[in-house]
Write a structure and sequence with these properties.
Radius of gyration: 20 Å
CATH class: Alpha Beta
Structural class: alpha+beta
CATH topology: Glutaredoxin
Strand order of the largest sheet: 2-1-3-4
Number of strands: 4
Largest sheet: 4 strands, mixed
Strand content: 5-15%
């Protein structure tokens, strides 16, 4: 009888712990709701914020284009032009710079803010 209780307790604990993790359905919802929106990230592969931001995009299965401004002057100029066009101060740029659907620009945004725009 003790064995049955132990097995039931372990099984219940396993089920509870599994239910609190994000499901594939949750990630699919994030991805499917943002299929129509393009994501462009300007940053550097030497920037820890950029690396973490890309990892978060990858973790939820979002597709994006990454432009490393350290290796391309063209992408640097493109980023600066987008920031200027958005009416943002060029002196206050931090990385990453994120552009959604070529019309919503974020400078060093919290990941949750980008997800809100995509949903």
């Amino acid at each position: 009888m003790k064995l049955i209780h132990k097995i039931a307790f372990l099984l219940f604990g396993f089920l509870v712990s599994c239910s609190s993790t994000p499901t594939k359905e949750t990630n699919d919802k994030i991805v499917s709701s943002s299929v129509q929106k393009s994501i462009v990230v300007y940053g550097s592969n030497q920037c820890s914020h950029c690396i973490n931001f890309k990892a978060k995009l990858d973790s939820v299965g979002l597709e994006y284009t990454f432009h490393d401004i350290d290796v391309s002057d063209q992408h640097t100029l493109e980023m600066l032009e987008k920031v200027k066009t958005a009416g943002r101060n060029l002196d206050d740029i931090s990385l990453p710079v994120v552009l959604i659907d070529n019309n919503e620009l974020f400078i060093a945004p919290p990941f949750s803010k980008v997800l809100d725009v995509l949903n």
